[in-house]
Every structure is written in structure tokens, then in C-alpha cells.
Amino acid sequence: MSSPSSSSKGGRPQGTRPGAKPAAAPGAAPGARTLMIVDDDDKVCQVLKKGFEHAGYRVLVADNGLKLVATLRTDPVDAVLLDINMPWVSGLQVGRAIKADPGLAHIKVIYITGLPGQEEECRQNGGDGFFQKPPKLAELLSTLRLLLAPPPG
Fold first, then answer.
1. What percent of the chain has a predicted confidence (pLDDT) above 90?
2. Would the pTM count as exceeding 0.85?
3. What is the rounded CA–CA span in Å between residue 120 and residue 46?
């Protein structure tokens, strides 16, 4: 059985009506930060989703960049964990588009990839963070806390 925040073929989380907001993750506090995981490998998505929900994040999942873009227009997120190599449109193209859009540029983009030597390219394409697969959850959580912390002062 799919959870309410799993992606569906229509680009909206399964179990929700059009325009409805997905329910908060179990253990996610009201007003919890929202993270979207975008990877065409369902196993990676589900492992990361479980870990981030356990840490109190509200988590959405998409299996490609086109679904991410559709979701961002209706369900704002604070950060995107974005695979680089995906069908239809690469994670680098999606990340670049997010950072080029004034209405979305505030979203933190963290790239993940199984390919070595991609860190500089990720930075050049608007990446706020970069992780080699398989990423360590503790390091991802630490990076997210830093990226999403309110500015000092």
C-alpha cells in the first residue's frame, strides 16, 4: 500500500484529490519543513523518505523532474534532493530551472548521483549541496539543518 506522500502517475501524491495538500508525515510537527526527493530509483526514494520522516520532515517523492516541477507550483517545498541522471529531463536541468525562477530560487537544491566527479558541475547548476550515492542520512540531515537554518541576526 502506498503512503499519502508517494508519487502517482498524475504527478500528485497518491491518495490525494487534485489541489489537496498531502498529510504531514507521521512524527512531523505542524509546520515541519518540507523536502521533496526526486529519483527514478524507488528503493532510494523510500529509504530516504523513511529516514527524513523519522527526523520530522514532511516528505514528498517524485520519480522524475517533470513531476517535481508540477508539484512545486501547487505544494511549496523548502528543499529538493535531486538525482542527476533521470529519464526525460536531467536533475541538473531541473535544478538550474529552479534557481532561475524568482518564485522558486529560495528552494535549496541538493544533488545526489552515482557518478563520480560531478560536484563542480552541480555547483555550476545551482546546487546548494552534493552527495555521492549512496548518501549517508546523518550527513544529509546535517546539511539540511545548515541550509534551512534561519540567517543569523
1. 37
2. no
3. 27
